[in-house]
Amino acid sequence: MNEVVFNRYPKEQNEYSALVKEINKQKFKTEPLAMVVTYGCQQNVSDSERIKGMLLQMGFDFTEDAEAADLIIFNTCAVREHAEDRVFGNVGALKHYKRRNPNKIIGICGCMAQQEIVKERIRKSYPYVDLLFGTHVQYRLPEFLYRLYTGNERIFETSMEQSVVVEDVPIKRDGTFKGWLPIMYGCNNFCTYCIVPYVRGRERSRDYTEILKEARQMVKDGFKDITLLGQNVNSYRSPVLSDSGEEIDFPRLLRMINDIPGDFRIRFMTSHPKDCSEQLLLAMRDCEKVAKHLHLPFQCGSTRVLEKMNRRYTREGYLKLIKTAKELMPNLSITSDIIVGFPGETYEDFLQTLSLVKEVKFSALFTFIFSSRPGTPAAQMEDPISREEKGKWFRELLKVQEDISKENETKLVGKTFRLLCDDYGRKEGYMAGHTDTNICLEFEGDSSLLGTFVVVETEYVDNCLTAKLI
Fold it and tell me: pLDDT band for position 1 (50/70/90)?
């Protein structure tokens, strides 16, 4: 494990925050407005909540209107090319807002910002972007804004503080009953297609006592669905031992959070098959608050391709793990990620993916055609299969999963579930919620149910699985 340095939120950042707040009072007649736009994964959403927390401390209010905003920050994703293209397109559109209001501050942060090639493109081609900062220095936002207010130079800061974990960063959560709780940062796996270790750094696990403190506060604040986050969440190892001198790994952490009094549900993502141990599956089985849903990306059904991906497990090992999980938890819902058309993948390799999907019968899949990321080993691999051919494979996969999903749905008809009402339905007079196994169901109800647990019975209406309150 890397040596990790733990810091409280630095005193000087609080001082910068107070200075920015005072400048805001003098500069604006009312509270200045900030707009934070988030792309990508749940970790980015969690990061944006901390960015908003710091902005709130500095005297900002929030808006979703780019014209009205005095400060716009794009928190970006670098995992797929499409996400980057969207960011560049949307940043380009901000040029007109900046022209109409030269004092508007435009900033870019997150995984894209951490890449040197992106940093230089922004510097040269987007002169109206005032601020760019990477994933490792996010907590220094008050300092950056103070320097922008008091200086005349653009700020580009992407230093890699690889082994630092900063606690007590102010936070403004987006939700009131569903929330994100990061337990670790970075990744040590270096899958050949993935940019994450290069932009998020190596694994750093938080002190378990800090996680428990934050979890208790979330429960106290009324959160009913808490998702533990990490690039590879089940490799969590607390750098601090328990009072009895024991190591706190992820299964132990789950049990400790489960012991917090209250009626709430625990989820986690994302897991790597090589670190999904039987001890973790036993903890999931034993802990009544831990959702019986496992998101376990397998990416490809061919061991040959998995080796090229540097995934460090085999097809057989993955299937053995799934078999154990289902034996321990017969009602377990399993979802996964799949990459179609990895460099060097043949149609025969792809057919092994299809056969694995048919054997496991996943509740849902997140499927992607391979997207080359500059700076990763896969970007240098020979890739002879055309995009058009990969698209045919992709559609074939979607059809197989569509049939499996229909089959899975028919097995749920007439069953009773307790679910958290967490959204509005697609038509008036209906609400929606997720079960313990992460199945989303619509049912007749009103907004008074939002954020509460309800019990429903499933039924099939108009060729669609739905539910009714009981």
Answer: very low
CA-to-CA separations, 402 to 70, 115, 319, 396, in angstroms, rounded? 45, 37, 21, 10
- Residue type at position 236: Y
pLDDT over threshold 60, residue 240: yes
Q: Are residues 434 and 321 in the same domain?
A: no
pLDDT, tens digit, 9 for 90 and up, residues 342-354: 999 999 999 999 9
Q: Is the per-residue pLDDT at 247 higher than 80?
A: yes
DSSP for 17-42 reads HHHHHHHHHHH-SS--EEEEEE-SSH
What Cα–Cα distance (Å) separates residue 170 from each residue in 17, 58, 455?
11, 11, 36
Judge whether residue 326 has pLDDT over 60: yes
Residue finishing a domain among 291, 316, 348: 291
Q: Is residue 358 located within the same domain as residue 284?
A: no
Shared domain for 145 and 14, answered yes or no, is yes
Structural domain containing residue 119: 7-164
**DSSP conformation class of 437:** T
Q: Give the domain-ending residue among 164, 194, 226.
A: 164
Residue 14 lies in a domain: yes
List the CATH number of the domain containing 453: 2.40.50
What CATH code is carried by the domain that includes residue 272? Answer: 3.30.750.210
Contact (Cβ atoms closer than 8 angstroms) between residue 255 and residue 287: yes
Same domain, 427 and 397: no
Q: Are residues 27 and 94 in the same domain?
A: yes
Q: How far apart are the first and last CA of the chain?
A: 50
Domain tally for the chain?
4
> Hey, what amino acid is at 72?
I
Instruction: Give the mean pLDDT of 125-146.
Output: 96
pTM above 0.85, yes or no: yes
pLDDT of 279: 97
b/e map 345-374, b = 16+ CB within 10 Å: beeebbebbbebbeebebbbbebbbbbebe
**What CA–CA distance (Å, rounded) separates 344 from 341?**
8
Q: Classify 180 as helix, strand or coil.
A: strand
pLDDT tens digit sequence for 371-422: 999 999 999 999 999 999 999 999 999 999 999 999 999 999 999 999 999 9
